[in-house]
Each structure stands twice: as structure tokens, then as C-alpha cells.
């Protein structure tokens, strides 16, 4: 029996996923069903079948396609297209501005490296493409929602006349970006002429046939080269080497206090703006871009990042106007254009309405905060409380915003009434 993957073409999958954009109260006879979210299962389909359809659609969007000179793969999430020319690869973003890629130049041990030459045996299969350089080394790529996963499989130990245990891969850098090895040596930042980090090649991990993780690191090798080093002593081949390339690896500007901030608990995206919540951040500061400290445990924070010319930078560090320990500001976030909403479900004020004077007399009643942007400057516009504030209601557990409409959820509000108002 054929699977849904085999029975449905990519255009057919796309048609199923798009459905009808204008929302209807119910499906009209002869018209497609309106889907209000990607997780909604269309009428007449089992949940497992719908999951399979969505997975097949995503696989098709990320699949490798043949070209006159090799292959290419588009990545909708990273907004770039990567060309593979049977030697290396080169990624170009949708809006232009830079190009970046790598090519393997040699591998082996320092005293006896094997130079890469000729054309590899190439195999493209869906979202995966591989270069088989020789009996020892396969270079491979997986294109998916995370970015471009770029790895190597070393099938057997390269020849070595000495007792060397450090396996050395020399990678040439393509395009105009310049490499900068990260402080932990497990990644490389690629920067433009102004010094801004445009993308990250990170998450380096190496393991052997038994699953044993091997020590590995990147080192600089000049403006246009990077070395990847693996300590393979006592390893059993084959080895797997596995970093990932992404346009941005975002960290808070004040990352690393004495306790976990939970940066990334909530995330929202609108165009070139990303908002990240860290609901257990510990600073007692208030407002926008103030100096953080560690005086209000789990008060929470939110961070705004913006993309310009392919490079991401932090634009704002947001705190509530009435920061309090344990408030959980940043547990939920939402953004629409120049309006941003942050929920703090454990905020303790007992007041009601908009911009009331906060107090600390209703534990975990919850609150939400509205920030607006003018140019590049963010400011708090509103402090929101429920019309029927009650202790433990957790108002701000969820937030959403679209244009001039904002919705706040209170998942433990205790009323038994029904309907509207």
C-alpha cells in the first residue's frame, strides 16, 4: 500500500496546507475548509495522516534540486538558497548583501594530510546530499528548519606514520564573510566588513561508533580558512562530525547570572524583529535598556533582536515598570509591527484595568505589559490588569497581538460564568 507521501504531490500538499484564508464559521458545501492554525486537523483526516502530509510538505520545501552545475536547496526559515557545485557550497540570502560557504581542502593528521581533489561521488536524496570523497571520508549536508547541517563521516582511520591522535580537517571559506572562532571553540561566527555576525556555524559535536563523544574544537587558520580538530585517541571508527550553520544564534546581553534565566522560554517573530522571553531572569532594574543586576530573583525579562542586511543585533532589553521578584515577566511574548506584549503571570498586583498603580496584595494575579517602538526606541505604553483581578488567576499566562487588538489569557481565573462580558 502506498503512503500519503507517495500519493500526494508537493503542489497537492501545498493546496491542502493553504486552504482558504478568509475564516468562516463553518465549512460551506463545495468550499475548502478554513484552517485557523497549522495544528488544526482538516475534517475527514486522521491526525496521524495530517501530520504525515505536513511533514511531506516541509520535506519538499527543503529538498535538494538538480541544477546545470550541481544542486541547490532553499531554506525558507533561514531565507537563503545554497548552491552545491561538487566541490563545496555557497549560500546566498534572499535579500543579498553577502555570500558564504565552505569547501573541504584536506583531512588527516598534520604530518600526512590528504589533499582533496577531483570530483566526489554525489548523492542527493530529499533533504540530504552527500559527497563521497574516498573510502575514508563522506561529507554530507541536511537542509531543514534548523538551517544547514554540515557533517562528515570518517569511515576508517586515515594513514599516519606517527603516534598523532588529532585528526585535522582544513576548511576553505567561500564568499566575503570572515571567520571568528567562538570562545568555547565549538563554533565559528562569520562576520561582515563592519564586524557584525551574519551567521553562526556552531554546535560542533563528534562521536565514535560506540556513541562516545570525542573532544573537538575549531581553530583559526587564516582569513579564508578554518581548522576542525578532533582528538580521536581510543576512538572506534567510524566517526561522525556534526556542526550546523544558521543565520543567528541569539543570546541575552546579560547572559550567565548565578541561576538559570530560561532565555528562550517564549519567542515571537514579526518580519525582521524577534522577541525572546527569559521569565527567570533576576535583575531588579525597570524599563528599557537599563543596567541589569541580580537583585530580584525570577522577576523576568524580554529581549528584542532585529535583522539588518542579514545581521542580527539586540535592540532592547525590556523589564517591567514595576519589577518584582518571582513575577515571571517574559513567560509569554507577542509582537506585531511596532507593538510588543509581555506577560507576567505571577505578578502580584490587585489593581484592575489599564495603567493603574501597582501594589503587591494579590499573589500571582498576573499582568501584561505593552511596549511600542518609535524608530529604534522602545518604551512601555501600558500596564494591563484584568477587570476582575484575583489572586492566583495567572493573567498574562498567554498573550497575542494583531494590529490594534490584544488578547491576554488567565489560565487559572476561577469564574464559572459563561459567554461574553
Helix coverage percent: under 10%
The geometry reads as: elongated
Low-pLDDT segments: 1-27
How much of the sequence lies in strands comes to 35-45%
Specify the number of helices.
3
- Decide which structural class fits the backbone: mainly beta
Alpha-carbon distance between the two ends: 53 Å
Overall radius of gyration = 26 Å
Mean pLDDT: 86
Largest β-sheet summary: 11 strands, antiparallel
Q: What is the β-strand count? A: 32
Question: How would you characterize the overall build of this protein?
Answer:
It is a single chain. This protein is mainly beta. Helices cover 7% and strands 43% of the residues. A hairpin with a 5-residue loop joins strand 13 (188-191) and strand 14 (197-202). Helix 2 (10-18) crosses helix 3 (47-61). The model is unreliable at 1-27 (pLDDT under 50).
Secondary structure elements and pairings:
Layout: H1 4-7, H2 10-18, H3 47-61, E1 64-66, E2 71-75, E3 80-84, E4 89-93, E5 100-109, E6 112-115, E7 121-125, E8 128-132, E9 137-144, E10 147-154, E11 166-175, E12 178-181, E13 188-191, E14 197-202, E15 206-207, E16 213-214, E17 216-220, E18 225-231, E19 239-241, E20 244-246, E21 263-270, E22 273-278, E23 287-288, E24 301-308, E25 311-319, E26 332-336, E27 339-344, E28 353-354, E29 367-374, E30 377-385, E31 395-402, E32 405-410
Helix pairs in contact: 2-3
Amino acid at each position: 500500500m502506498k503512503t500519503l507521501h507517495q500519493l500526494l504531490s508537493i503542489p497537492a500538499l501545498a493546496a491542502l496546507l493553504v486552504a482558504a484564508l478568509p475564516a468562516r464559521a463553518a465549512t460551506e458545501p463545495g468550499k475548502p475548509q478554513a484552517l485557523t492554525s497549522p495544528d488544526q486537523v482538516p475534517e475527514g483526516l486522521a491526525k496521524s495522516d495530517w501530520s504525515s502530509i505536513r511533514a511531506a510538505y516541509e520535506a519538499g520545501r527543503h529538498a535538494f534540486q538538480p541544477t546545470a552545475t550541481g544542486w541547490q536547496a532553499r531554506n525558507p526559515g533561514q531565507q537563503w538558497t545554497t548552491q552545491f557545485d561538487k566541490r563545496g557550497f555557497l549560500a546566498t540570502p534572499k535579500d543579498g548583501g553577502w555570500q558564504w560557504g565552505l569547501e573541504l581542502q584536506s583531512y588527516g593528521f598534520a604530518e600526512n594530510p590528504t589533499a582533496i581533489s577531483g570530483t566526489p561521488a554525489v548523492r542527493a536524496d530529499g533533504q540530504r546530499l552527500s559527497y563521497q570523497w574516498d573510502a575514508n571520508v563522506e561529507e554530507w549536508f541536511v537542509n531543514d528548519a534548523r538551517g544547514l547541517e554540515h557533517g562528515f563521516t570518517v569511515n576508517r582511520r586515515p594513514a599516519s606514520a606517527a603516534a598523532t591522535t588529532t585528526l585535522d580537517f582544513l576548511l576553505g571559506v567561500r564568499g566575503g564573510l570572515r571567520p571568528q572562532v567562538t570562545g568555547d571553540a565549538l563554533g565559528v561566527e562569520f562576520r561582515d566588513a563592519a564586524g557584525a555576525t551574519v551567521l553562526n556555524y556552531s554546535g560542533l559535536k563528534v562521536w565514535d561508533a560506540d556513541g562516545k563523544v570525542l573532544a573537538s574544537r575549531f581553530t583559526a587558520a587564516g582569513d579564508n580558512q578554518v581548522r576542525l580538530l578532533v582528538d580521536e585517541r581510543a576512538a572506534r571508527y567510524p566517526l561522525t562530525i556534526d556542526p550546523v550553520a544558521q543565520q543567528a544564534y541569539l543570546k541575552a546581553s546579560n547572559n550567565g547570572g548565578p541561576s538559570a534565566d530560561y532565555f528562550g522560554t517564549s519567542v515571537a517573530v514579526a518580519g525582521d524583529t524577534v522577541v525572546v522571553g527569559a521569565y527567570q531572569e533576576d535583575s531588579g532594574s525597570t524599563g528599557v535598556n537599563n543596567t541589569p543586576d541580580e537583585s530580584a530573583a525570577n522577576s523576568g525579562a524580554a529581549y528584542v533582536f532585529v535583522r539588518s542586511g542579514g545581521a542580527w543585533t539586540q535592540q532592547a532589553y525590556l523589564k517591567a515598570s514595576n519589577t518584582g521578584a518571582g513575577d515571571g515577566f517574559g513567560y509569554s511574548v507577542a509582537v506585531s509591527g511596532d507593538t510588543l506584549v509581555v506577560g507576567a503571570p505571577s505578578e502580584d498586583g490587585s489593581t484592575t484595568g489599564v495603567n493603574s498603580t501597582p501594589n503587591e496584595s494579590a499573589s500571582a494575579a498576573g499582568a501584561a505589559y505593552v511596549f511600542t517602538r518609535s524608530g529604534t526606541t522602545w518604551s512601555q505604553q501600558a500596564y494591563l490588569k484584568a477587570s476582575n483581578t484575583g489572586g492566583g488567576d495567572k493573567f498574562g499566562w498567554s498573550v497575542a497581538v494583531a494590529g490594534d487588538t490584544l488578547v491576554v489569557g488567565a489560565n487559572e481565573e476561577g469564574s464559572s460564568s459563561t459567554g461574553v462580558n
